[in-house]
TrEMBL record:
Transmembrane segments: 12-34, 46-65, 77-94, 100-123, 135-157, 163-182, 203-220, 240-262, 269-288, 294-317, 329-349, 361-382
InterPro entries per UniProt: HcaT-like (IPR026032), MFS_assoc_dom (IPR024989), MFS_dom (IPR020846), MFS_trans_sf (IPR036259)
Keywords linked to the UniProt accession: Cell inner membrane, Cell membrane, Membrane, Transmembrane, Transmembrane helix, Transport
Organism: Paenibacillus segetis
Topological relation to the membrane, as annotated: Multi-pass membrane protein
Keyword match Isomerase: no
Top-level taxon of the source organism: Bacteria
Domain Major facilitator superfamily (MFS) profile: 172-395
Record localization: Cell inner membrane
Protein name: MFS transporter
PROSITE patterns linked to this entry: MFS
Amino acid sequence: MRSLFFARPELTWLRVYTFTIFGTSVLVASYFPLYYAQLGFSNTQIGLLYALGPMISLFSNMLWSLTSDRYRTVKKILMLLLLGQIMMTVFLSMSSNFTMIMFCITIFYFFFYPVFPLTDTLAISTAKQYNKNFITIRIFGSIGYATFAIVIGYVLTLIGSKWTLGVSIVIALASLIFSMFVKDRVTDVAKVNLSGIWSILKQKELIWFFGCVFCLAIGLRMNDAFLTISLHDLGATENLIGWSMLASALTEVPIFILLNIYGDRFKELPLLIFASLMFAVRFLLMGLTNSPYGIIGVQMMHGVSFGVFYVTAIRMLTRLIPDSYRATGLALFTVMWSSISGLLSGTFGGMVFEHFGRSNFYLVAMAFSVLACCGFASRYLFREPRGPRDIQRTM
């Protein structure tokens, strides 16, 4: 009883922090592109600015996660990253020239992207410490995303998109304050070295998994980069865009709850196949609709696509990678899920959107989802006859 009493404040602060940190994710993913459009940038330029983040995160995720594993601290790294975000957002708010914004946003992304895999690392470690499911903490990120999506939409409708960066500073500052009350968590880590990471990457199943994740992520990141631009082109206001973000984020919550209760009854590969298929259907419908309200309706498929995929992918990843390399493993996952895919979807997707139109843009996104579905299905049908625990024991 005593331990449970003292556990509650720690879990509460971590949930509050997780709730708040996803507010910055809403801004960067959904409202930064509108801010760039207000400055007069073209879709190709916006795509390039979006691609800068994933390009920087290719090494920033690994750098900060390796540092976290090496010095056995997550909390201090998170606080440093949030402080860097705040400083660079201030500089970004002072710029309007495309070249200068490219420079500032590059450094901003260096601090922004590693926050989320490290937050997941902290949540997983804390949940394991108290024999709870990681989803019981991560679900507050989805609730926070939904809440901030609608609140930010209303706020920016009232004060204008020019205050986007000011709102970002406020949310990042709140996240920094809440992070001070979060208890640091470390595992008994092995000494970080390249040979240890290479032993992880030599797993054939892990390489296949990352390849399928990469294909699936391209379509999702294309949608992330140009969803708000699509809505804006169809006449949606910031307020309506906020409702679109709310519709997608809220659908994650029941999916997370259901998978928390019943997820272990289903094997990972069938769930990943299902999620990939739902992504393909979702992007097909996105390409067919010509109404902002239609897009909001399609966005409600986010839970059965992203929600199912994310929970299952984390579950599979924690099985394939030992605890001693958890932060590094999640960083590798983020590199495939967000960094490399985001780099390609931003540059390539921007050109497709500008030169071939929105409908063809989403057909391309659908094609990548179908490819990922085929990859997961092939592994399920032709997998080697050995169990999951056998794979883990080879580590």
